[in-house]
Amino acid sequence: MSDVATLAVKGLAGGALVVAFALLGEAVKPKRFAGLFGAAPAVALAGLTVTLLTKGVGDARHNVTGMVAGAAGMVVYAALVVVLLRRVPARAASSVALLVWAVVTAAVAVPLAS
Fold it and tell me: Which one of 4, 62, 82, 101 has the largest count of C-beta atoms within 10 Å of its C-beta?
């Protein structure tokens, strides 16, 4: 499959899954959990599925490693920025938390990649 066709399939699959997750989000009570079913999980699943079908298990594994590492970093970022926002201005809090996100993501990704 050509790169353009792969990109088109990823876009269509991602769009379809975004709609499906949005419908699921509408059905969830309370509504504050609807964000859990936002676009990111749908696009990630669509991209991963297309990668698995077009490029194989090896490339899909690398994608999953990046997703897991990025998610771990995001959890740390979110927890840290909440604490920092109580003590320092928003620009400083987000900058420090972003640096920590990068460090955590790299620290998680390296062992997973090997």
Answer: 101
pTM to 2 decimal places = 0.66
Same domain? For 69 and 101 the reply is yes
DSSP 89: -
Amino acid at 101: W
User: Can you read off the two tokens belonging to residue 76?
Assistant: 């740390």
Angstrom distance (rounded) from CA 2 to CA 61: 21
Q: What pLDDT does 49 receive?
A: 85
For residue 96, give its domain range.
57-114
